[in-house]
Write a structure and sequence with these properties.
Elements lengths: L3 H15 L1 H34 L4 H75 L3
Length: 135
Amino acid sequence: MMHIKELQKKVENIRRRLDPEVIEREKRIEKTKGLVKGAAIGSIIAGATALFLSPDSGKNNRKKAKEELEKAKEVLETNLNEGREKLSKVYELKKETIEAKKNMLKEKLDLNDNMNIIDDIDLEEIEEELATDEY
């Protein structure tokens, strides 16, 4: 027998899969993954082809490959650090935005609670007036 929570999860999963925005986002993600895989495979094939067709000796090829790998490593480290910084900035900005919206929502809820109290008091007065009025 399926529990209600499991059923709710399955229904939510089906809803998400039928949502056109989610479908489009998943398609873009898959295309991006395919592009990255293609670029990686292409780079490997190009590198291997360059090594095999190079007129230099093996020693020179290894030296060049090592230098290029060092350059690539530096670029990756730089990009990774920049990505971390940007992600951190975005995280902080989103955190501040969420906090501001949370506080605004709390204020509205407090205001609504106070309004409800006033409404309840007004409602009681109206009920008393109606009870004393004769028709």
